Amino acid sequence: MANEVSSPVRFHAAQALLPQGWAQSVSIECAHGRIVSVTAGAPAGPGAQPLGAVVPGLGNLHSHAFQRAMAGLTEVGGRSGDSFWSWRELMYRFLDRLTPDDLQAVAEQAYMEMLESGFTRVGEFHYLHHAPDGRRYTDHAEMSGRIAAAATATGLGLTLLPVFYAHSDFGGAAPLPAQRRFLHDVDGFAALLDGCRQALRDTPDAVLGLAPHSLRACTPEQLQALPALVDGPIHIHIAEQVREVEACLAWSGQRPVRWLLDHAPVDERWCLVHATHLLDDEVRGIAGSRAVAGLCPVTEANLGDGLFPMRGFVQHGGRFGVGSDSNVLIDAAEELRLLEYGQRLALRGRNVVSPGELSSGRWLYQQAQEGAAQALGVAAGLVAGAPADLVELDAAHPSLHGRAGDALLDSWVFAARGGAVRSVWREGRQWVRDGRHVRRDEVAARYRAALQRILG
């Protein structure tokens, strides 16, 4: 099969986006899934895989894979006060039906679609740990193992972020019955992480982090104990909804982000997901901590969350990446497009995010790529030592034809629909050819069978 490529392997790109900018006639030497060297202005040489316009793969820093199966099923109007919170109740009812086989099939479909859109690694914010009745599986990490298996089967890079969840609200409130599949104490969660390490042994290039679900879901004492359990990234949902901010104020006298910055060792390991509702001092605080803001524009729009204060964050040197979150729509370019367009609507201007002379598309792509790599615990870009994760754009696509350099990237982000990604290589192996995942038919068949059972 096309994905069974031995190393070393050599690529030759007509043009490629390097950290310092676009370069022509670029030779990329790879071995054991990593880039060994990158040389601009080089001849193709014998045996090189010819490529057109190449950009480094983009990391998807926030995903709940199982929610792909409910995409489009919560768009019924007329419910009084429909909001994130009513959507959450529907989600709880949906996930009660998922078996381990179902989860793997759904995750494979989501991960396949991520690769086809240009994402090459995912941060899986994984909180579906237990059986529907809340009991642990015989293998404590059964569901985490299914996530790892889905990533391996589709070729997507995986940063697994097992979620710690113990309470339903601030102040250690008792969990709800609908949350029984998520719950752990700290000792039980440490045992889960041991199981996750075993599950990831056969998953190439995998990274293990962890995720306190939110300040609602853990006490200050639990939050303090968690960072020492792993060496990898730490992600947390925070300040996504106004109601959450108000509840945190009532509990602590502080807003969520301010409380977190004052009470947790927030640094480069951390990713603050959403962080939608911020005051100026919180914007400066996140930027100064060197944490990554994990923005999910499609989901945040779908749920009516609000708009992140992007321009102020960027002006303070803030780092960010994008994620597909609820997977209601999986499209790397669309996340970047909506990120910029949301700011344009709020500020009533054009090209409002990029602080310098770079085009909006290139600036968004490179910043999101670097931020996601940091948040997912991997090296970034087409540079020696980084994963050999390459995305080839289709220069013959109607929206990309006749473009080069920044204009090509701008046209992908702002003007192209499906089909603009021609091929994707992960760790030097091809997983997308002519816009289709090499295992699309079998993955889609398993997904349809799982969906039939779930919805039936």
What attributes characterize this protein structure?
about 450 residues, alpha/beta, Urease, subunit C, domain 1, eight-stranded mixed sheet, five-stranded parallel sheet
Structural write-up:
- This is N-formimino-L-glutamate deiminase.
- Residues 12-48 form the Formimidoylglutamate deiminase N-terminal domain.
- With 456 residues, this protein is an alpha/beta fold.
- It has a domain at 9-56 and 382-437: Urease, subunit C, domain 1, CATH 2.30.40.
- The chain has helices at 84-95, 100-117, 142-154, 186-199, 220-225, 242-252, 256-263, 280-289, 297-302, 310-315, 332-347, 360-376, 405-415, 440-455, and strands at 9-18, 21-31, 34-39, 49-56, 58-63, 119-126, 157-164, 207-208, 211-212, 234-238, 270-274, 292-295, 319-322, 390-393, 421-426, 429-433, 436-437.
- The chain has an eight-stranded mixed β-sheet with strand order 3-2-1-4-14-15-16-17.
- The two termini are 35 Å apart.
Blueprint of the fold:
Elements: E1 9-18, E2 21-31, E3 34-39, E4 49-56, E5 58-63, H1 84-95, H2 100-117, E6 119-126, H3 142-154, E7 157-164, H4 186-199, E8 207-208, E9 211-212, H5 220-225, E10 234-238, H6 242-252, H7 256-263, E11 270-274, H8 280-289, E12 292-295, H9 297-302, H10 310-315, E13 319-322, H11 332-347, H12 360-376, E14 390-393, H13 405-415, E15 421-426, E16 429-433, E17 436-437, H14 440-455
Parallel strand pairs: 1-4, 5-6, 6-7, 7-8, 7-9, 10-11, 11-12, 12-13
Antiparallel strand pairs: 1-2, 2-3, 4-14, 14-15, 15-16, 16-17
Helix pairs in contact: 2-3, 2-14, 12-13
Protein name: N-formimino-L-glutamate deiminase
Domain Amidohydrolase-related: 54-429
Organism: Stenotrophomonas nitritireducens
